[in-house]
Design brief:
This protein is an all-alpha fold. The chain is 64% helix and 0% strand. The chain has helices at residues 9-26, 35-41, 46-53, 61-71, 75-80, 88-105. α1 packs across α6 (88-105).
């Protein structure tokens, strides 16, 4: 299977999903935060968020800036997967989510 480029819509969408779920966990939520609720928190329409998370469309810069303001993640992480700018708590949760996904595949 071919590896996707880090700036492909699919990879950006995967990171957006990780950001949404990790943000909810960092906030102490017991359940996964919904796409619609997270979109509203980031001042993005729920349909725009869904289209970006499912890789139907690439998230625009205004939407990405809303995510960055709300969560503290960098635009470099959103668009390119660069982890250096992730807030510590978000980085830990994203790593846990990725590890759990890898364990399910094994």
């Amino acid at each position: 299977m071919a590896t996707q480029e880090p700036d492909s819509n699919e990879e950006i969408g995967k990171r957006l999903r990780l950001i949404r779920i990790a943000y909810g966990r960092v906030q102490g939520r017991q359940r996964e935060i919904s796409q619609a609720e997270f979109a509203r928190l980031c001042k993005i329409t729920p349909s725009a968020w869904n289209n970006a998370e499912t890789a139907d469309n690439r998230i625009g810069i205004d939407g990405a800036m809303g995510i960055a303001r709300r969560t503290g993640v960098s635009l470099d992480y959103i668009y390119f997967g660069e982890r250096a700018g992730l807030p510590h708590a978000m980085a830990i949760e994203i790593e846990r989510l990725e590890a759990a996904k890898s364990a399910k595949r094994a």
